Amino acid sequence: QVQLVESGGGLVQPGGSLRLSCAPSGSIFSIYIMGWYRQAPGKQRELVATIANGGDTNYADSVKGRFTISRDNAKNTVHLQMNSLKPEDTAVYFCYIHGSVYNGSRVNYWGRGTQVTVSS
After folding, report:
1. 3-state secondary structure 39-56
2. What percentage of the chain's residues is helix, strand, coil (to nearest 5)?
3. Fewer beta carbons under 10 A from the terminal one: N or C of the chain?
4. What pLDDT, on the 0 to 100 scale, is given for residue 73?
5. Which positions ≥6 away from 9 have C-beta within 8 Å?
6. Cβ atoms 93, 34 nearer than 8 A
7. Distance between CA 60 and CA 40 in Å, rounded?
8. Nearest CA among 96, 69, 94, 73 for reference residue 82
9. Backbone torsions φ then ψ of 67, nearest 5 degrees
10. Residue-level pLDDT at 107
């Protein structure tokens, strides 16, 4: 069973930066979309950013201009550079990969989450 391993969360002051990274623990046959979601206390999980194979990106309006998603296809890793962080960015951030197994069946993979806390 492939696991997604996230790193880079932590505590940062408002206006600061963090970089999240995510990599699968094993091989995934095909990867189509990689991304990040977040869930704040008492709220539903929401999309932060995604990046497709061709490099097309999609961002939540709340993070546009502050967050940048990137991927390394050779290493199957995805990164989220977060700048100008705000207290409302505080949440558990989850890595996400939409891929397929050898028979073409689509699979969604999720990480366990990494805590990001923005506070002075």
Report:
1. ECCCCCCEEEEEEECCCC
2. 0, 55, 40
3. N
4. 87
5. 18, 20, 93, 114, 115, 116
6. no
7. 15
8. 69
9. -105, 145
10. 93
DSSP state of 2: -
pLDDT-flagged residues of the chain (< 50): none
Q: Which residues contact 103 (CB under 8 A, 6 or more apart)?
A: none
How far apart are the C-alpha atoms of 34 and 85, rounded to whole Å? 22
Pair of tokens at residue 51 = 């990046």
Q: How far is CA 79 from the centre of its chain?
A: 7
- For residue 87, the SS3 value is helix
Q: How many CA atoms lie within 13 A of 6 on its CB side?
A: 26
Query: Strands 67-72 and 77-82, how do they pair?
Result: antiparallel
Position 30, amino acid: S
Q: Which two tokens stand for residue 33?
A: 């979309």
101: CB partners within 8 A, 6+ apart: 29, 107
Q: How far is CA 9 from the centre of its chain?
A: 11
